[in-house]
Amino acid sequence: MRVCALAVSIITLLSAAPALASDWVVDPAQSHLTFTGTSQGQSFDGSFGTFTAKIMFDPAALDSALVDVSIPVESISTGAAMRDDELPKPEWFDFTKFPLAHFTANKFTASAEHPGDYVADGTLTIRDVSQPLTLPFTLVIEGNTAHMTSSITLDRTVFGVGQGEWANGETVAKDVTVKVDLIATRAP
Predict the structure, then answer these.
(1) What pTM did the predictor assign?
(2) Domains in the chain: ranges and CATH
C-alpha cells in the first residue's frame, strides 16, 4: 500500500512540474541568415556565413523557451567586392570594435489563427546598440527535425550601421529585409 501511495505521489509531483523546452542543434549546412538591401536604387542580396544558436523550444512549453543567437559580423558577404570592402569600416559594421551581432528572446507567443506561427519578443544588438525586436516566425516540427523561417525589415541606422554620408538613406536605403531559414534537430 505504501509503494502504491509513493508511486501516486511521484506521478502527481511530476505532472505538476512545469514542462521544459526541448534543446535543438542547428544544422549550419542547411541553415541560412540572409538579407536584401538597396543601393543606388538597385536591390542586392547578402548573407552571414556563420552564426551559432542556443535554442530551447517546445510548442507545449513556451514559458521555458529561449533563443540566443550570435553572429560574427565578419562573415557578411554581398558578393560585390567594392561593397564588401566597405562593410568592415567604422561607418558600417566596424568588425574590430564590434565583432558580434546578438539576438536573444525568452518570450514566445503562438498564433491562435495560424498553427505553426509564432512571435518571439527579444533584443537585437548590433554595434553595441540594443533594441527590442518582435520576430514573427513559422515553425514546422516533423519528428526530431524543425524548420524555422522568418522575414523582418529593420532600419539599419537605428543600430548605427551606415554612418556619416550613409546615414540619410539616399545612396543606401535604410530598410534591410532579413530572412532566416533554419534547420535544426532535437538534441538527444
Answers:
(1) 0.87
(2) 19-186 (2.40.128.110)
